[in-house]
Amino acid sequence: MIYRIKDGFVNVYIIDRGDHLVLIDTGIEGTCEKILSKIKELKKPLKTIIITHHHLDHTGSLKCVKDATGAKVVAHEEEVEVIEERTRVKVDVPVKDGDVIEGLKVFHMPGHTKGSICLLDEESGALFVGDIMIERDGKLYEVPHRYSEDPMMNRERIKDILNIEFKSIYPAHGEPVLENARKKVKELVEALEREK
Ligand SMILES: [Zn+2]
Ligand SMILES: [Zn+2]
């Protein structure tokens, strides 16, 4: 079961793993309260926080959620330093491409940031894409170039997504794409190809 918490322009996701919960990203600073009240409602402990990348709309409530739950913090090894520097929270488990954590397979997707990751829920085919792509009005787009460290490299990553066996796309910005997700990624790749 995947729960989405929307806070203004950004989503965080809570995955119910039966006896415990997993959080993907932590939103902005004020998102903490919403996350904690959802955890309380679900009556299960939060054991793991996975950060898709260091940007402040994904790590804004990291310290608050960590302090309240003691959950272990997971991020790509190339993102550890900047997350720790900006949030003052230790990354307990650095991961790399191909690792599986909490039933989620890690895909290293450098471009938006150097340690950006996507996470595939191997059971449901849900793919959490962080900021590799965003959704707007039922369509997928690349994140505006000014937000990416290397926008052209991020474009290559969008193509790489098609090599992953996913069924649905869960972006950090916009609505989850539950129907025709692969078709929509293909349409985005084609639109970017035409732009060249
Ligand atoms: Zn970002
Ligand atoms: Zn973002």
The total count of strands amounts to 13
Beta-strand share of residues? 25-35%
Please report the first level of CATH classification, the CATH class.
Alpha Beta
Report helical residue fraction.
25-40%
Distinct bound molecules = zinc ion
Strands ordered across the widest β-sheet? 1-2-3-4-5-6
Order of helices and strands: EEEHEHHEHEEEEEEEHEH
Assign the CATH superfamily: Ribonuclease Z/Hydroxyacylglutathione hydrolase-like
The average pLDDT value, as a whole number, equals 97
Q: How far from one another are the termini?
A: 39 Å
Number of domains: 1
Looking at the structure, the CATH topology is Metallo-beta-lactamase, Chain A
Task: Note the main attributes of this structure.
single chain; 196 residues; alpha/beta; Metallo-beta-lactamase, Chain A; six-stranded mixed sheet; five-stranded mixed sheet; 6 helices; binds zinc ion; hydrolase activity
Q: Can you describe this structure in just a few lines?
A:
This protein has 196 residues and is of the alpha/beta class. It has helices at residues 32-42, 56-59, 62-69, 80-87, 151-161, 181-195, and strands spanning 2-7, 10-16, 21-24, 46-50, 72-76, 93-95, 100-101, 104-108, 117-121, 126-130, 133-136, 139-142, 168-171.
